[in-house]
Write a structure and sequence with these properties.
Shape: globular
Radius of gyration: 15 Å
CATH class: Mainly Beta
Pfam families: Cupin_2
Largest sheet: 7 strands, antiparallel
Helix content: under 10%
Strand content: over 45%
Distance between the termini: 30 Å
CATH architecture: Sandwich
InterPro entries: Cupin_2, RmlC-like_jellyroll, RmlC_Cupin_sf
Number of strands: 7
Oligomer: single chain
Order of helices and strands: HEEEEEEE
Number of helices: 1
Number of domains: 1
CATH superfamily: Jelly Rolls
Protein name: Cupin domain-containing protein
Organism: Hymenobacter oligotrophus
């Protein structure tokens, strides 16, 4: 691998904590290419994300913890290893039951 290629690679650990601290926002955009994003977020137990929507389809993958995601009034309890997909424009919210780490693909 050339040194230019190696310099362009971004590595880290979302599970073990080797990644750069993400501070108070608790969100880190890992990829942002042509409007498509992969976002890593952390939540503490009891935290919520108020009802909102996204202009694109969304895939949420739970890496650790447990939370409830409500989409268009239907609640789904998710834990590590689970995922949920919902369409563009769907109203959704989140309530964290146990400290959690998630990846959002949108």
């Amino acid at each position: 691998m050339s040194s230019a290629t190696a310099a362009a690679l971004q590595t880290g650990s979302l599970l073990g904590g080797r990644h750069t601290a993400i501070g108070e926002t608790k969100a880190q955009v890992l990829v942002d290419k042509q409007g498509q994003k992969v976002i890593f977020k952390t939540f503490r137990a009891g935290e919520t994300m108020p009802t909102h929507d996204a202009p694109v389809d969304v895939l949420v993958t739970v890496l650790a913890g447990r939370l409830v995601i409500t989409v268009e009034g239907a609640a789904a309890e998710l834990e590590a290893g689970d995922y949920i997909v919902f369409p563009a424009g769907a109203r959704h919210s989140l309530h964290c039951l146990h400290d959690a780490r998630i990846l959002i693909y949108r």
